[in-house]
Amino acid sequence: MDEIEVAVGGPVTVREMQPEDEAGVGRLFGACEDYFVAATGAPALPADVQSLYYALPEGADFEQKRLLVVCRGADDVVGLVDVVDRHPDVGSCSVGVFLVAPELRRQGVGAGVARRLIEEVAGRGMRTVLATCPGDWEPGVAFLRILGFEIGGPEAAAATTVGNRTRHPGESGLRTARLKVVADR
């Protein structure tokens, strides 16, 4: 993916994550403790950044995995998007994690980035975006609703994977959200 710029809520750049971004992603994980506690029952651990590279749902290949960072300035990581292209089928993509630094929430940054990435997905022929969110984490559920996702009810923790990643033992009550993407004409 080429870098994209989004000016909503302040200029940010979205690009593929590089190994040198790991420290910034680790700081982002620490700042987003509210998400991790809601999702897994515990704060993020340092190893969670490394596990991003390897977490894949059953049936997906590593070539489908994309880790995108949202940066303010050259290398100030303020967001992360973890996505698997063409999963669970060739017309879909699955988003496992979509994080925005707490100080930038509710300023349009996340929605602006998400809308721009949805345009990219449509331009590459995918027609469905799937996402997961902790069922009782209202900021995430509200974010998905703002973007137009249809949100399902909380799920039991039966599956070993959720969205595009391996399920953490503390995860339960997750909601799966689906967005039908309309291609530009």
List the helices and strands and how they pair.
Layout: E1 4-6, E2 12-16, H1 22-31, H2 33-40, H3 47-51, E3 65-72, E4 76-85, E5 92-100, H4 109-123, E6 128-134, H5 138-146, E7 150-151, E8 161-162, E9 165-166, E10 174-180
Parallel strand pairs: 5-6
Antiparallel strand pairs: 1-2, 2-3, 3-4, 4-5, 6-10, 7-10, 8-9
Q: Would you give an account of this structure?
A:
The chain has 5 helices and 10 strands, in the order ββαααβββαβαββββ. The longest helix is centred in the middle third of the chain and has 15 residues, at 109-123. The protein has 185 residues and is of the alpha+beta class. The strands form 2 sheets. It has an 8-stranded mixed sheet with strand order 1-2-3-4-5-6-10-7, sandwiched between helices. Strands 8-9 form a two-stranded antiparallel ribbon.
Distance between the termini: 22 Å
Shape: globular
Could you describe the largest sheet, including whether it forms a barrel? 8 strands, mixed
Return residue spans where pLDDT drops below 50 for at least 5 consecutive residues: 162-167
Task: Find the count of extended strands (DSSP E, 2+ residues).
Answer: 10
Beta-strand fraction estimate: 25-35%
Spatial strand arrangement across the major sheet: 1-2-3-4-5-6-10-7
User: Treating each run of at least 4 consecutive H or I residues as one helix, how many helices?
Assistant: 5
The helicity comes to 25-40%
Order of helices and strands: EEHHHEEEHEHEEEE
Mean pLDDT: 85
Overall radius of gyration: 15 Å
Structural class: alpha+beta
